[in-house]
Fold this protein.
Amino acid sequence: MENRTGLIADIQRYSLQDGPGIRTTVFVKGCPLGCRWCHNPEMINPSREVWYNEARCTLCGKCIEVCPAQAIKGYKDEREIDRDACIARTGCLKCVEVCPNGAMSAVGQEMTVEDAVKEVRKDEVFYRHGGGGASISGGEPLLQADFTAEFLKECQGHLLDTALDTCGYASWDTVSQVAQYADLILLDIKHMDPIKHKEETGVSNELILKNTKKLAKMGKKMRIRVPVIPGYNDSEDNLKKIAEFMV
Ligand code: SF4
Ligand code: SF4
């Protein structure tokens, strides 16, 4: 039976980056890649965790006092969480509860498909008038394939436009299971050289490129995106190869 509960890192309304028009984007937690430039590092780990915001911390020390796992280290100017020792995934959020300044926050909340769809439907009126819809991103939505497929399917059932923002790194069975319910697929291509791809993301690009070709063959509407990282993938040669791959 499909899993209708997902671990959600965030839900962002009025999003303009994750597909056409005004959208609501559900960000799932967990990603199989570890890109050096990742702008959502709190979404990489596939389990619930605590995130520390140094700018809000007044170094009061309350979090250290209550932590049952001695997972918080107190340095002169900041706190550091030992992620191996932290037991947030088992339900402990004592540091979040006690912090007077909101410097500790929990990332990762279990949510059913029904609740996620209910949340995105709050802005349905904007989608209808602005050509937007519901998007799912992350992290990597294909890591929670059952949840993602059911979420997109239900959104389509409510006549919402759906977009899947993926790195494309999953088995073809998983990709096709989810892609069938996406009206648009946003897919990142980072580098055409498999070795360089692995160096900066942790995985080779071979599976990603294969899946991209299969999605195109399947007739899926796609938008290929290239995060331009100076000195890594912005050479004329690499950009030319990406352009050639796309035609
Ligand atoms: S979630 Fe619990 S175990 Fe983890 S750092 Fe906070 S108090 Fe410590
Ligand atoms: S409880 Fe909050 S403000 Fe106090 S040291 Fe911990 S993170 Fe900083």
Q: What stands out?
A: The pocket of iron/sulfur cluster (ligand 2) is lined by residues 57-63, 79, 98-99, 101, 103-104 (CB under 6 Å). The domain at 5-42+110-246 is CATH 3.20.20.70 (TIM Barrel). The chain has nine helices and eleven strands.
